Amino acid sequence: MQFAYQITVFLHLLGFAALLGGVLVQLRVRDPEVNRAMLVGALLELVTGAGLWVLAVLDSAPVSVPQLVVKSIITVFVAIVVVLNRKYASIPRGLWALIGALTLVNTGIAVFWQ
């Protein structure tokens, strides 16, 4: 069970890195877009986040349900925004910033919410 948890956390962190990396790569681009890294990262975070929740419940470890609910809502929202805007050649700079900000907020919740 511990190995499954570690692999899932590893993949979750890779999803975060891909999503945030996809956002940061476009800092100097005039017309940002939802690139493949953002799409894969958002979906990987969504799937592995659900997997981490299941593993935590199966392990019967103490879990902060409010934290998981907030993180899940943010992750689902980001994934939906990324998937729906993947088909466009460019997205508004504000939407691009929202995706990046919510990614950082979600990570901050994971790290600082005890």
Characterization of this structure:
With 114 residues, the protein is an all-alpha fold. It has one domain. The protein has four helices and no strands. The chain is elongated.
Mean pLDDT across all amino acids = 94
Question: How many alpha or pi helices?
Answer: 4
The percent range for strand residues is under 5%
What structural class do helix, strand and pairing data support? Answer: mainly alpha
Gross morphology is elongated
Unreliable segments of 5+ consecutive residues? none
Instruction: Note the run of SSEs as H and E.
Output: HHHH
N- to C-terminal separation? Answer: 23 Å
Count the beta strands. 0
- How many distinct folded domains? 1
Helix content: over 70%
Radius of gyration: 15 Å
Major beta sheet, specifics? none
Describe how the helices and strands are arranged.
Blueprint: H1 2-24, H2 36-58, H3 65-85, H4 93-112
List keywords for this structure.
single chain; 76% helix; mainly alpha; 114 residues
Structure summary:
Helix content is 76%, strand content 0%. With 114 residues, the protein is mainly alpha-helical.
